[in-house]
Amino acid sequence: MAKLLVHVTHGPEHPTRAALGFLVARAAIEEGHEVALFLAGDAVQLLRDAVLDNLTGLGTGSLRESYEAIVAGGGRFYLSGMSSQARGVTPAEVEGKPVEMAMPKVLVQLAFEHDRVLTY
Fold it and tell me: Pairing state of beta strands 116-119 and 3-8?
């Protein structure tokens, strides 16, 4: 199957767009594709437990449910280190989650390694 990179830049301030990125990643995993998500900008806040537990997009479902399906399906998460620092998202907040802190060059590398890139 194919490799898909989902680049999410919208966070809790745009719940439907944020949840849609996760929903599409989940759907790709359910179809057997390899999926990675790179969260940047306000999207880095999406992996905070309070956000995962409370964000539901209009017609896109629960963020937590999509996140859990992505993790169960082997999806990989990358969190922009610069965006995280600017928004106070600490490594302790994502401890225990399958997340790698990454700089912009990692996003560029991932884009070239994957067959398709979608941005939300």
Answer: parallel
**pLDDT band of 28, cuts 50, 70, 90:** very high
Q: Phi, psi (5° rounding) for residue 58?
A: -70, 110
**Coil, strand or helix at 111:** helix
Break the chain into its structural domains and give their ranges. Answer: 3-119
Percent of the chain with pLDDT over 70: 100
Q: Do residues 35 and 29 touch, judged by C-beta distance below 8 A?
A: yes
Looking at domain 3-119, its CATH architecture is 3-Layer(aba) Sandwich (3.40)
| DSSP letters spanning 48-104 | SHHHHHH-EETTTEEHHHHHHHHHHTT-EEEEEHHHHHHHT--GGGGTTSSEEEE-H
User: Residue type for 115, please?
Assistant: D
Residue bearing tokens 């994502």 = 94
